[in-house]
Give the backbone structure.
Amino acid sequence: MNLYLYLSFLSLILSSFTLQSENKKEVAGTYGIGAFEFLSVLKLNENKEFEYRYAVGGCQAVVTGTWMEESGIVKLTSNSEFLPKDDPDPMAPTYPVFDNTKWKVKAKGLKPVEEIDTGCFKTKKLHKRIKKKE
């Protein structure tokens, strides 16, 4: 009887380790949503740099920066040229502010924890994985 309990316990432990390693997904890749004249694409490179492209009609831009993943949360930080200035030029374009912006890792993609305001549109929708890392 003790041998049976021991083997059952051992198989339970081994299967939990297997499930944990299968559940840990590679986050680097391309994620996006889109429709007619609407685009929101986040590309996470393996070198921990990101590129966020967005467009709706004629309003479009690309924001770059760095990212890190911790406990199922991806944090984005824009490069300095995309962060708000102390004395902004009123004619300068508006970019979404990614200052430690968090995105939750989901089974099918990434979802912003808070609404993303690009200046063209606002979104909090799931960005589905388009392509795995290159």
About this structure: The first helix runs from residue 2 to 23. Helices lie at 2-23. The CA atoms of residues 44 and 91 lie 30 Å apart.
